[in-house]
Amino acid sequence: MALSKNDIINLTITSTSADGSGVGKTQDGMAVFVPLSAVGDELEVRVLKAKKTYAFGKIERIVTPSSARIEPDCPVFSKCGGCVWRHVSYDEECRIKHQKVVDAVTRIGGIKDAVFSPIIKNDNVSRYRNKAQLPVGADKNGNLLIGFYAFHSHRIIDCNDCLLQPEIFAKVISVTRSFIEQSDNDIYDEKTGKGRLRHLYIRMGEVTKELMVCYVVNGNGLKQEDILIKMLRENLPALTSVIINTNRNDTNVILGEKNRTAFGRDYITDELCGLKFKISPFSFWQVNRSQAEKLYNKAKDYANLKSDEILLDLYCGTGTIGLTMAKECKTLVGVEIISDAINDAKENAEINSINNARFICGDASSAAEQLKNEGLKPDAVILDPPRKGCGEDLVKTIFEMSPSRVVYVSCDPATLARDLKYFEEYNYSVKEITPCDMFSRTAHVESVCLIEKN
Ligand code: SAH
Q1: How far is CA 266 from the centre of its chain?
Q2: What are phi and psi of 239, to 5 degrees?
Q3: Domains in the chain with CATH codes
Q4: Among candidates 344, 343, 337, 339, which has minimal Cα distance to 368?
Q5: Which of 94, 170, 206, 417 is deepest in the core (most CB within 10 A)?
Q6: What pLDDT, in 10s, does the model give residues 373-383?
Q7: How far is the CA of 322 from the centre of ligand 1 (A)?
Q8: 245: CA distance to ligand 1 center in Å?
Q9: Best mutation site among 273, 279, 284, 324 for ligand 1, i.e. most ligand atoms within 8 A of its Cβ?
Q10: pTM to 2 decimals?
Q11: What is the Cα 449 distance to its own chain's centre?
């Protein structure tokens, strides 16, 4: 029987979709996607939208809860677009994430013989992030909102203390709130493009505890900035840096191009795998530093470098992965498309007295092609592309350079699976995959993968 909007159906949740919805099947075999449900739930579901072969619904009543359910501990869970897994146990979340990687790699990638290691769990499921980007807005009565966007929306859900962020961020939010309420600064309105303050952007060194607070402003600065800085300094002894970022564009991109240092330094520092790194407002830096160490250590095991070998680190960002392995090999070559990140990578090499590294600014595929034509023969290649993956052209170039090992770090199991299939077509075999939970309570899962030449 076809489903229609507002039908109430009984449904048992049997699996989870890639974006974190529970999925159950009707007696006719139609898949129904139900957000905020858990595998094992027996539910009454209201149909919200029905297509020919699948439907979307919402929980009307939990008839029998899944044994994996826990009480969500955040007041804005289910409203804010950040977390999807605060209603199931952490073990269940890890099971789902592991399965998501296995499903993608075996179904999309068609990879049969790889070993899937257990997921690397997060020791701190709460407050693991070192970065927050909070939109600032006003409700229809003009009340100040600082928080997070709702799912697939630009509606701001007010939130003083996000459980994924360090407690000190809540203090930054509350000081900012008091300042805005007592100062003459108006709030940016996306619809009209008028108003001053757009975003609050906070970063903290997890080891060093250094704190950077950045205000994204539609203009050159905030009114009464000196009072703001005084308030921040009085309440936050760890304050290292206050940055005013100018963004006058009608855009969803948070940061504009211009930064001005209103207090302290224009960067903070942190440590990773025993090295020191400089973090500027624009630099890519892993948001979960402790898990990044575990991920990089696994990548280092897979790379298994020897002192006479050459390592090529593609999509290197500020050089972090390669630099943590540079002492194990003869030469490190890093490639990255953002020039600021390359400058940071060079500086990070210097700070850590690493002098066997060189960094190239360019597109990974073109730079790899050029390095190949110059005769570079890496023994191992690290690949850490953004979500869209690396694609076939780069896999082909890597095949032509013929490294014995490739270590692929991925933030998207689907594009990882597609790229692994290319590697298998180019005379390489996927040996082992380790999922890693960097972003607990959210739908995202990272993995690291060892690929070897046949
Ligand atoms: N390996 C780094 C960064 C990984 S994030 C770390 O772990 O810290 C992915 C990086 O790929 C980003 O720094 C991004 O700027 C870069 N990037 C995106 N597209 C690229 C391309 N076509 N060529 C080279 N680098 C690219």
Answers
A1: 23
A2: -60, 120
A3: 8-64 (2.40.50.140), 94-124+288-453 (3.40.50.150), 131-272 (2.40.50.1070)
A4: 337
A5: 417
A6: 999 999 999 99
A7: 13
A8: 23
A9: 284
A10: 0.93
A11: 18
